[in-house]
Structures are given as C-alpha cells and as structure tokens.
Amino acid sequence: MAGRTAYETLTKLSQMGDITLHEPAGDSPQAERKRRSRKQEFNLNDCISHLSTPRGPKAVMKSMMTTACERNCNYCVFRAGRAKTKRVTFQPDEMASAFQTLESSGKVDGLFLSSGIIKGSVTTQDKLIDTADIIRNRQRYRGYIHLKIMPGIEYDQLYRSMQLADRVSVNLEAPTSGRLAALAPKKIFIEELVQMLQWAEQIRREHRDEKLASSVTQFVVGAVGDTDLELLSMSDKLYSQAQLARVYYSAFGPVPGTPFENLPATEAIREFRLYQSSFLLRDYKWDVEELPFLRDGNLRTDVDPKQAWADVNLIHQPVEIMQAEREQLLRVPGIGPIGANAIISARRRGTLSELLHLKQIGIRTPHKLAKYVLLDGRQPAHQLGLF
Ligand code: SF4
Fold first, then answer.
1. pLDDT digits (tens, 9 = 90+) for 94-124
2. How far is Cα 274 from Cα 288, in angstroms, rounded to an integer?
3. What pTM does this model have?
4. 150 CB less than 6 Å from ligand 1?
5. What range does the domain containing 344 cover?
6. For ligand 1, atom 3, which residue shows the shortest CA distance?
7. 168, 183, 209 — which closes off a domain?
8. Residue 277 covered by a domain
C-alpha cells in the first residue's frame, strides 16, 4: 500500500511537467536554460534539475505546491484563467513524501519548492513552510532546500522559511513599480516584494548566531520596455543594501494563452550580458555608472561589457602588469580574481615581460588582453604565434 501511495504521488509529481522552464534556481542559470530547451514528454525527470548550488553540484527536485494561482501575471504559464494549464495541487505531507521517495532512492539531493498562490500568500506560504518542516524535522533531511517566498507574507513566516531553507527567493520580476504594474498587475512592488528582501536582511542581522537562508531574486527581462540600466541599478541596490546572493535574469518568452502571447521573445544574448554585468557589480565591485550603457539605457549585446569599458578606458591608458593594484588588474578583460592573484604572486618572483609568461601562470587568452596592458613598460605584440 505504501509503495502504491508513493507511486501515485510520483505520478502526480510528473504531471506537473517542467517548472524549470520558468524558474532558474542554481548558480549556472544559463546551463539550466540550455538543458530545458530540449523538448521532452513530461515525466518524472522533468522535476529533477542538475544544479550548481551553494552546497555544490546537486540533482534537485524542483516542484510547486500547486500550479493553480489566483493572480494574473501577464507572462505566466500558471496565471489565473489560463485554460491550457494543467492544475496539480499537493498537500505538505504528500509533497514531503514525494521528496523522501526520490531522496532515499538516490535520485535527488536537494529541493527547490515554489507555488502558485491560492487563498492568499499567507496561507500558501504556510504550506511551503509545513512541507519544509516535515522534511527537516520528521524526515531529518539536512541537505539543500530552496524555498520560494510568496509576495507580502508575514515577517515571522519569512523568518521561519529562512530557518528551514538554505536559500529563499523573492522574485521582484521587474526593476520598478511602473514596470511591475505592466507585468504583474496584482503584485505590489514595495510592500509585497522589496520589503521581503529588506526583511530577509534584517532577520539575518538580528539573528547572527543562527544559520539562515541567503536570498535571491529574479527579473523577467524585456517584456515591458525595462532597460538594462533599470535592471542593473536595482540589482546593484539589492547587492549592497539587501546582501543578495544572486540576481537571476530570465529572458522573456511569450506563453500562448496569456496577454503577452504576441510579444517578441527577448534574445538570450541580452540575458547573458546582464549576467556578465551583474557579476561585475557583485564580484568586482564596479559602480553601476561605470557599465558602458548606450543612450537608450541598454548595453551593447555584441561585446562583453568589461571589454566595451576597456575599449574606451584602457586603450590609451594601458595597465602596467608589473605594478598595477589588484583592482586595476581586475579591470582588464581576461583577468579575473584567480588571474589577478596569479600575476601578483608571479611578479614577486620575477618579471612578466611577455604574453607567454601570462599564459604560463594560467591566463587563458593573453593575446586578448594585449592591447590593454603593458608588460614591464612595453606593449606586447597582439599576435601569439607560439600558441
Ligand atoms: S503569482 Fe506566480 S504563479 Fe501566480 S501568476 Fe504570478 S508569477 Fe504566475
């Protein structure tokens, strides 16, 4: 009987299809996109994603408490009234048992749990919390859990979610309240979304001795005229003021049967340039004003933003590799944190005077950075015939 129940629960889970189409969750969202572009029939494997998580690469069960929703976000496959969506709903016990079955059989080691909203955000979040509570405290699972935060939940619910999860996501969807009104008419930008991220940071500050979840957000890119400048300015604020671990950018794709079904899809390259820029803000500590925006507030899609910046700023003022501070080295396209450390360490031992020397210490494409640097006072030749 128990086996049949597990089988039925897993069958129900597989009917949910691939929610990963809409929710990047790991630390390599572009790789997730490539995987999910392969068309498959719905099966249980659709609910399993191979993610790079803060606890390392993992096969993670991605699911929703319900695919029904009373809200009407204009881009969303699960929006209220969309006839083509198959609605599937789980109770916390059921969802926890589905996870336990997959986890104990070794198919997954991690859970990403989201939900449509039914009977309000507070009731829905309670179901997410109850599920995570069963998994943590009854099933004694200590691995990776990522919980979605419903818009406008109570402070204590957020705190409890952060105690149970490794990561929580509050999806802003849009960078300003005006853009959000066009995307998701029933969501309230500040009170329901931004405040959740502010509270999350407040909770971490107030409970420093506790192990609490990090927070992330996601933007839907390109459906309602949002610019890269708007998206990256908001990302920058969130990194610095709400200590976000990551911002996801999800290129808009039209879903049949929604008000946005006839809008053009956003090109994947725009999403990629946003990720590159976002890393410059988060990991390289660039100011958003330094990013090379065009007059319309967008970035060039044909060139890496770091290279676009260097083409303007370093061509006539190349960086001297033998003397530059670490921050200056990081400005050079092709030099990341590991490369900068390698250069600083190598130049203590001797002189770096040729591109070959950079190659030998691990800079993968030294010819690409040749025009932006001096090596011991001389600009290196751009061609590297030796390689
Ligand atoms: S609240 Fe979430 S599930 Fe519901 S319509 Fe909006 S994006 Fe979709």
1. 999 999 999 999 999 999 999 999 999 999 9
2. 12
3. 0.89
4. no
5. 314-374
6. 116
7. 209
8. no
